[in-house]
Amino acid sequence: MSLLDMIGPVMIGPSSSHTAGACRIGQVARQLLDAVPEQAEIELHASFAKTGKGHGTHLALVAGLLGYLPDDERLPQAFAEAEAVGLAFNFETADLGDIHPNSARLSVSGGGQSVSVTASSTGGGVIEVIRVDGFKVSFSGGAHTLLTRYPDEVGVIAKVAGLLAADGVNIAALTCDRNKRGGDALLSIELDQPLGAAAQAFLQSWPEMQWVRMVEPVMDAGIVAPVLLGTTA
Q: What is the rounded CA–CA span in Å between residue 175 and residue 9?
């Protein structure tokens, strides 16, 4: 166990949940888009909406979309940085239902692609992604995570699991959701190690795969409390 596992993330303050966690939510959304973000509609829920400005939540979410880490010294200037690279964004208050009060839904587009990500910052910089494009998921961003969208058909999950096994990759956790029987489904798998590039390319070549993403870890799974580098307005 490292010192970071014990004391938490090095970050630009003031809040691990409202700042570090929010930045990581933005990082995950950027990876799921798999393109440079050009437009972001950001809906803030409950505590994020009520106290976010004072805790730097708005800045941190945009910083994450830019690919910045929670300890990036540019985080307090994220709005200006976004304008410089052509990322337009808008914030709204929304009731996202019975979920953690530190939550947001990011609808992001760019490069001809779009994605909607709903995630919660549960404390100490830890996050949970709970929906992707409306499908229920559950992953923390603390592990390599494979997501695939495909038609709801018999045998697809087994086929993906077989590919992982052939590549020597172990499954840590798995969730699957579908919009209706025989409709579209989304599979989310947290992995003990990354899927190899050749296996990823092979998976993407399957005709049934509409969408494949490999999300790299944005946090250490052992994080429990923050180490502050500074404060944000």
A: 27
CATH number of residue 30's parent domain:
3.30.1330.90
Give the distance, in angstroms, between the CA of residue 97 and the centroid of all CA atoms in the same chain.
Answer: 19
Residues 104 and 118 in one domain: yes
**pTM to 2 decimal places:** 0.88
- What is the number of domains present in the chain? 2
Residue 45 near residue 104 (C-beta atoms within 8 A): yes
Nearest to 99 by CA among 51, 137, 144, 125: 137
d(CA 84, CA 61): 16
Looking at residue 200, which CATH number applies to its domain? Answer: 3.30.70.260
Q: What share of the chain is helix, strand, coil (3-state, %, to 5)?
A: 30, 35, 35
- The β-bridge relationship of strands 227-230 and 171-178 is unpaired
* Residue numbers of the domain that contains 168: 143-216
71-85: per-residue pLDDT in tens? 999 999 999 999 999
